[in-house]
Design goal:
Layout: E1 7-11, H1 23-39, H2 43-49, H3 54-61, H4 69-78, H5 84-102, H6 116-125, E2 128-133, H7 144-154, H8 160-173, E3 184-190, H9 191-195, H10 201-214, E4 220-225, E5 239-243, E6 252-256, E7 260-264, H11 267-283, H12 287-300
Parallel strand pairs: 2-3, 3-4
Antiparallel strand pairs: 1-7, 2-5, 5-6, 6-7
Helix pairs in contact: 1-5, 2-3, 4-5, 5-6, 7-8, 10-12
């Protein structure tokens, strides 16, 4: 993490060849690169310390491969890293990355997942997600009819079977809301997302009813930013903050636009997003008042 971390834009591509870079892998690789540079060690010298080739060090530092604990320990010792907490943080990051890679989740078999595959994988191992949405209902809360209407209006997918697979993908993600390890979700939604008639009035009435039902779950907190709140800190765009159970794991921020996906991987930048999220939440309606507003909009359709 050069300079405490970096913001990595990921162009919308589903084929990265054998360069299976992941968000966690890139973070870990960047930190190892920073430590090597600080120690004044070449890639060949680092490779010799773990009885490997220079190519392996390149792949490790670019986050292309999962990393073994023994290699990380040897490299840390070789780089002069004596702080047990620093080493433990790297090992924890490596463990999270390996779990993410070996999960072989159902999403990996769906070409419709596209650039969302990495996000779904992160979401699958996360403990908490905080999401701010300007114009859309969060994917974890969408009904099948709402998701289908979005896919149709997108214009990218023309095959009805592809659209149905997208809907199925969205519905399967929602299994994280229940079960033995339910995902903690804190969502703040702008009022515009509740009033936009995606799919028509009938679809939106059902969607708003779904929001009301989900807001009753103990692991879901839902707030609405009403129009009357005026300007707010997060007016520039939506984002999601993904958190993990391990104390050493830094939050990762995901933003999505028409042309690209951006992962914010630094501790400092994730703190900025958390601060802005909290400020926006404080300007929003409390959960009870949010439910009243949602129900009023639903009845008015």
């Amino acid at each position: 993490m050069r300079g405490g971390g970096e913001t990595v834009p990921v162009v919308r591509r589903t084929d990265q060849g054998n360069r299976a870079s992941t968000v966690l892998g890139r973070r870990l690789g960047a930190e190892l690169l920073r430590l090597r540079d600080a120690a004044g060690v070449t890639q060949q010298q680092a490779a010799h310390s773990i009885s490997a080739t220079g190519t392996k060090i390149v792949k490790m530092e670019r986050g292309w491969v999962p990393m073994r604990d023994p290699d990380i320990r040897v490299l840390c010792e070789f780089y002069g890293v004596n702080d047990p907490d620093a080493v433990a943080t790297l090992l924890s990051l490596a463990r999270l990355d390996r779990e993410r890679r070996k999960a072989k989740g159902w999403w990996q078999h769906s070409p419709q997942a596209g650039v969302m595959a990495e996000y779904i994988a992160m979401e699958d191992v996360a403990s908490r997600v905080r999401t701010w949405q300007l114009s859309l209902i969060p994917g974890l809360f969408q009904t099948a009819e709402y998701a289908r209407s979005l896919a149709v209006s997108d214009g990218f997918w023309e095959d009805p079977d592809d659209i149905e697979r997208i809907v199925e993908l969205r519905m399967r993600r929602q299994t994280r809301l229940t079960g033995q390890r339910p995902l903690q979700v804190y969502a703040v939604i702008w009022e515009a997302a509740l009033r936009q008639l995606v799919g028509g009035a009938d679809v939106m009435r059902a969607q708003l009813a779904r929001l009301l039902d989900l807001s009753e779950l103990p692991n879901v907190r839902l707030q609405v930013m009403p129009f009357r709140s005026g300007g707010h800190p997060c007016v520039t765009g939506p984002f999601s903050i993904i958190s993990f159970a391990e104390a050493e794991a830094v939050d990762v921020v995901h933003t999505d636009s028409i042309a690209s996906t951006i992962w914010v991987e630094s501790a400092q930048d994730s703190l900025v997003h958390r601060t802005f999220f909290d400020r926006t939440a404080r300007l929003s309606l409390a959960p009870h008042d949010s439910a009243i507003l949602i129900d009023g909009i639903r009845k008015g359709m």
